[in-house]
Automatic annotation (TrEMBL):
It comes from Chroococcidiopsis cubana SAG 39.79. The lineage of its organism: Bacteria, Bacillati, Cyanobacteriota, Cyanophyceae, Chroococcidiopsidales. Belongs to the bacterial solute-binding protein 8 family. This is ABC transporter substrate-binding lipoprotein YhfQ. Keywords: Coiled coil, Lipoprotein, Signal, Transport. GO terms for biological process: iron coordination entity transport.
Amino acid sequence: MKSLRRLICFLLLGLIAVTLIAACNTARNTRVTNTRLTNIHVTNDQLQVGNCRVIGHEFGETCVPLKPQRIVALNPDTILDPLIALGIKPIGYTSDNVGGKEIIGSVSLDDVAGATNVGKSDQPSLEQVFMLKPDLILATKYHPYPLLSAIAPTVVVPSPNFDVPANEAFFKENLRYIAKVLGEETKAEKILDRYQKRIEDLKQRLGNRLSQIKVSVIYYIHGLVYTPAKNYDATADVLIDLGLHYKLPPSGKSFSIESVDEYNTDILFIINLERKPLSFFLQHPIFSRLKAVKNNRAYLVPLERWDTRGILGANQILDDLFKYLPENP
């Protein structure tokens, strides 16, 4: 067994060395961009060469098999979520660790039954990825692209960016990009159409109250609060799609708990990173003075469902909004 592992590692290192040399030679001819997803397009409108399509991404171009069968997804939110939504199960995936608990975003374990967990999303195991013999790796810019591309064709999926304006919600752009990589654009549009229909259904159910409800969403951890940002977190984008009065934050900033008065709205959703019970907030001297807490309209919502940048997560947020927004939840 040890000799087999040494052989595998030797072969992998050899592949990596070859790829690094090739990467150095081609880097001069590759224009690396740092734009939002809307500015990263499939080359020549999904140019097909032989048995693959050429996909442009932040680190260059990749020839993707027309029908990849062995996909490894290295991020739960921006890769695994849209893959599962499109009905595609990868052979390998990564997970995150929050509060000592392994989570895969808004994807259920049943959705990845039989697939292999290849490590944490910020540090996947290259050896495990290699052993799976993938024909396509979907990664982010934070992963070691030259090393991964030595194993299999690798596409770098764009990440959300606070600094560059977007035409629409990131989770929608993200789904469309993954669908374009895999040639599933029609299916993606049907998924987004179903999402929009659910938005319209909830609007109709709320009626005139929609223009009157004021909603806040906060993350809470170690005495700090911050709120989801539009065109980044699906939570904010779903609330905006509904047309609710939503307290928008300064992007990427957190505040001490004393600032929670800024979120004194009719309804308060709390994404509790410390997994404290609701009683902690109901009895807290600062939270307890908020209108939503006094009126029993403060709700703890699961991190796994609400801290999301994927279409599956957006629909799970909608599930909770159907549950909590009506007057008598």
